Description:
The protein folds into 3 domains: 3-207, Rossmann fold (3-Layer(aba) Sandwich), CATH 3.40.50; 216-378, 3-Layer(aba) Sandwich (Rossmann fold); 385-570, Thiamin diphosphate (ThDP)-binding fold, Pyr/PP domains (Rossmann fold), CATH 3.40.50.970. The chain has 24 helices and 23 strands. A 6-stranded parallel β-sheet has the order 5-4-6-7-9-8, sandwiched between helices. It has a 6-stranded parallel β-sheet with strand order 14-13-12-15-16-17, sandwiched between helices. The longest helix has 21 residues, at 364-384.
Amino acid sequence: MASIRLTAAQALVRYLQAQMVETDSGVIPYFAGAWAIFGHGNVSALGEALYEVRESLPTYRAHNEQSMAHAAIAFAKASRRRRSMVCTTSIGPGATNMVTAAALAHVNRLPVLFLPGDVFASRRPDPVLQQIEAQQDGAISANDCFRPVSNYFDRITRPEQLLNALPRAMATMMDPASCGPVTLALCQDTQAEAYDFPADVFKEKVWKFRRPRADNEELSQLVQELEASKKPLIVAGGGVLYSGAESTLAAFAESKGIPVAETQAGKSSLSHDHQCNLGAIGVTGSSAANAAAREADLIIGVGTRLQDFTTGSKSLLGKLGQKLVHINISAFDARKHMGIPVVGDAGATLDALSSLVRSYAVSAEWKAQCAAWRDDWRLSAAQATRDDGSNVPSDAQVIGAVNRSAERGDVVVCAAGGLPGELHKLWRSEAAGGYHVEYGYSCMGYEIAGGLGVKMAVGAPNVFVMVGDGSYLMANSEIATSILLGQKLTIIVLDNRGFGCINRLQVATGGAPFNNLMKDAHQKVMPEIDFAAHARSLGAQSEKVTNIEALEKALQRAKENEHTSVIVIETDPDRTTEAGGHWWDVAVPEVSQRKEVREARKEYDAALTRIRERESE
């Protein structure tokens, strides 16, 4: 058998180059590139290997390890898990900076390949610079932090170990059920060691996406439940989009008259004006979707994890007599909340279901009731996003201005805080994939880097990144990267001078405003932050506006700008959309010296009582 003598780093990179994927556009490389911040743990061997293939596997320079990983994750999400990127760092802080991003990818079931540098396998210079010394275990390194947040983890201490580790890594990322982040911790000396690798390992391999059908018995049970249902509701999750099943869902819902509610990950599965679309569900949901969820006798989850914001901490679903069925590619997710599992691809399962229940349709009464809820909600949403001339606008009014500026094919990007809640309720999605909000891990700092990843993945005419001042201050350096790479973003910074969302939650649970808004924090000097000037210093074109009319004009100018634009507008930290939404379980202290907390606890206990009563109705 022919062999090729390569270093471990060279072999790894050559293998990654050979991995191809079959898409609707043809066969293309699975890995779109590598993000790298070099240090002594990866610059010598892996850096040299990446340099050799820089034309076919481009390496991108970032400014923050967590942010570059967020960009890679957003790329994978916007690519609907059809492609991925690589992230490499040195040993130590560079590696652990990526752990948060790995957790985000793990929660959201998104593929990314992490290649952090590690200690010397030989332990010759032990302890090497930036090495964590675990006194209780000599085999532990900082990279063991990746174990609980990786779908597959391995530490490469010998070059030949790649022969097993790399196929396992690819199988994990390509499998629709196990899809998620992979970490291969690369010992520094191992990267540079040579080995005679079999030449066949580097032959081009074309991967195809699997769409497993559901078990016949499980599918049969779903058919029985649906045919017995008078008031069904579909909850569309991210799995609909990852399966490419949005058209299938639309056709199925239309033909049967079944209303559809959308999770954060599933939003844009249907266009906002689709006749069956009741909008967002859950804590950040529309009044229409939540009313339907309360009244439905059958909930069919399609590709959703049904986390607490979707279920209203389990209070929105589960009334006595209500059935719950999970269509999910993952058996782990399909068995949540004591639901009936239907394990299979979302699109393939809906296709099969369509052919098995040809004559089924919801009652005219249920259809009319859902339409009335939908129409009432749309009027409320339109009112919330309308400019009322306030001196300091609400988040909802800013969202309305950006939404009016957006065109079909544009994408809005956001994460964490109050903005995703308002966007979930109020953003009008025209096309699948036009709504990109990270709320599975609700990670502040994802926004700008995520926008960069989206732009690289889909090349949308306009990628609108909506970010609060708190998240902007956490992670803004990839503005400079967007300039460097020529990837234009339009970033809208909503400045409410603190963490407005958590301040509202603090007050709602009886707490005194404390340590969230800057005015309520321990301070000696109140900083006057000029976000527009800061963005300009990173290379962006920027301006600050004072009202919605000025914002709309600035958004038009941003479309005409050649490079990334940043628009800053002050918003009211206390105003939020009152319509829609649902209770969320945030525990309130049982004992407090403050009357407000004691009163909030009484309301909390009363809410728990109402939930128990509803479950037994």
